[in-house]
Structure formats: C-alpha cells, structure tokens
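Running this now, will post back.
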Amino acid sequence: MIAITTRYLGQTNYKPSRVRAESANGQTLTLNWDNALNGDGNHRAAARALIEKYGWGKHAWFSGGMKDNSTVWVCCGFAVDALCFTDSQQRWAETSPRESGIREAHPAGTV
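Update: finished.
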C-alpha cells in the first residue's frame, strides 16, 4: 500500500508558496503554488505529479484532510476501472474526482 501526504509550504524570503507531496517511502516532489487553483486543486496537483512520476496511476486513490491542514492520499492497491487513472487518459478531471484516478474520500452516506 502506498500513502502520500501533501502539505502547504508558505513563502519565504527566497521561495514562493509551494505544496509538497511525500510518499511513505520517502519520495518527494514540490510544486510552486498555482494561484489559478484552489487549495484542494493544488494538493491534488502535487499528489498527481508524484503518482505520475513513479507510475502509481493505475490504482484507485482516496484522500482525506488532516487536523494540521495536510491531505493524505492512500492507494487501495488494486485497479478498479471506474476509479483508475490510465495512461490513455489525456487529463485528470479537476472538477469531478470520479473521472480521475484520484477519488475523494467521503464519510459514509454523504456521496
């Protein structure tokens, strides 16, 4: 099973605001904050970039927020056609997580 944590990194005197994705295995990737996206979109973009970099996109991914405002992404470990990102897809849906390999986690009965 793979887990990824994404977190916001505020700007410094030398670097702009960023979002960092880190896997439980220690792989990391940092993207500059994209003001055209909202907070969830920036966290999704960082997770997606790390997922694509290591070829983990053929599995269903679920996400949830943490108390410290980070987001955790968990790979369920098996492919499900309706939830999977495949190499043949040209884009990840930013408006509907159901169309992408990243599936948002919801409390039971809220979807």
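Residues 3-104 form one domain. More later if anyone needs it.
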